[in-house]
Write a structure and sequence with these properties.
CATH architecture of the largest domain: 2-Layer Sandwich
Radius of gyration: 19 Å
Distance between the termini: 55 Å
Number of strands: 10
Strand content: 25-35%
CATH class of the largest domain: Alpha Beta
Number of helices: 9
Helix content: 25-40%
CATH topology of the largest domain: Nucleotidyltransferase, domain 5
Strand order of the largest sheet: 3-2-1-4-5
Order of helices and strands: HEEEHEHEHEEEHEHHEHH
Structural class: alpha/beta
Largest sheet: 5 strands, mixed
Mean pLDDT: 90
Low-confidence stretches: 1-12, 238-252
Shape: globular
C-alpha cells in the first residue's frame, strides 16, 4: 500500500497495524486490525530487544497468518523510556517504513497509559518507573472522549510529581494510572490525594494493543509520519550523554 491514493482505499476498507512498545523491559508487540487486537506477545525475559524484537514480530504476524510487508501502518511507542529500548524500536520501524513504503503512527507511552484510566474525573495523571528514584509522568485533561496533555512529559521524583499534579489540578479530581503505583503510594505527598478519595489504578504492562488502537484512530485521521520525521521522546538524556558531559566538566 502506498502513501497517498491507496491510503484512501484503506480507510474505506480495513487497516492492519503492527504495534511495538520497547520503552523499557516490559515491552510487547501486537497486530491490530480495524481497532481489534488479533494477537499480542509480551517481552517476558531479560533478552535484549536487539535480539528479541524481530523474532517476536515474526512469531506474532505468523500466528495471525500475515507478514510484516502486509501491515498497512506501524504504530510505535515513541517514549518516554530507556534510550536503548526506544532506539531499537524506532530504528526497526523506520527501516520497515523505508523498505515497504508504509507510514508510521508515533504514540506516547504515557498517553497509552492514560487511556487505561477509569473515566471518572476531569483529569488523568499517568506515570511509570524511570528508575534512579524517578518516574516518567504526564497530566491530561479530558475533553469529551479525548485527552489533552497539560504541559510536557517529564522525568521527576515521585513526590514532586504528586505535588506538580496537585498544583495543576487544584480543586479538580484526578484519575491516577500506572504500571508502578507503589512508586507514588509510599510518598508522604500522596496522603492528601488519598484522603480526598483518589486511588491509583494499576495498569497492565502489556501496552502494544492499546498503542495499536490509538494508532488505528490516528491513521483514520491521517495523522501519520514517515521514517524521516519519526523521532523519539526520550525526556531524559542517555547515560552516554550524562557521563560524557560529567567527564567534560571535571576536565575543565
Amino acid at each position: 500500500m502506498g502513501f497517498d491514493g491507496d491510503w484512501v482505499y484503506c480507510r474505506i476498507s480495513c487497516v492492519i497495524l503492527l504495534a511495538l512498545d520497547t520503552c523499557d523491559s516490559r515491552g510487547s508487540v501486537a497486530v491490530v486490525r480495524d481497532g481489534e487486537v488479533l494477537g499480542v506477545l509480551a517481552h517476558e525475559s531479560s533478552e535484549d530487544y536487539s535480539s528479541w524484537l524481530l523474532p517476536a514480530v515474526q512469531e506474532i504476524v505468523r500466528s495471525v497468518r500475515l507478514t510484516v510487508p502486509e501491515m498497512d501502518v506501524y504504530a510505535v511507542a515513541s517514549g518516554p523510556g530507556s534510550f536503548t529500548g526506544l532506539r531499537v524500536g524506532l530504528t526497526t520501524v523506520k527501516a520497515w517504513s523505508e523498505v515497504f513504503g508504509k507510514r508510521i503512527v508515533p504514540v506516547s507511552r504515557l498517553e497509552a497509559l492514560a487511556t487505561r484510566a477509569d473515566p471518572s474525573s476531569a483529569m488523568v495523571a499517568a506515570f511509570f518507573d524511570a528508575h534512579r528514584g524517578q518516574v516518567f509522568g504526564a497530566l491530561y485533561s479530558r475533553e469529551g472522549a479525548a485527552l489533552q496533555r497539560v504541559e510536557d512529559e517529564m522525568v521527576i521524583a515521585p513526590s514532586e510529581f504528586v505535588t506538580w499534579v496537585s498544583e495543576r489540578a487544584q480543586a479538580l479530581a484526578v484519575d491516577w494510572v500506572s504500571m508502578d503505583p507503589e512508586r507514588v503510594r509510599v510518598e508522604a505527598a500522596w496522603t492528601a490525594r488519598e484522603k480526598a478519595g483518589e486511588k491509583i489504578q494499576k495498569s497492565s504492562t502489556v501496552l502494544a494493543p492499546i498503542i495499536g488502537k490509538i494508532g488505528y484512530e490516528r491513521a483514520q485521521e491521517g495523522r501519520l509520519v514517515d521514517a524521516l520525521t519519526l523521532d523519539a521522546e526520550y525526556v531524559r538524556r542517555s547515560d552516554a550523554e550524562i557521563f560524557w558531559k560529567g567527564a567534560a566538566s571535571h576536565g575543565r
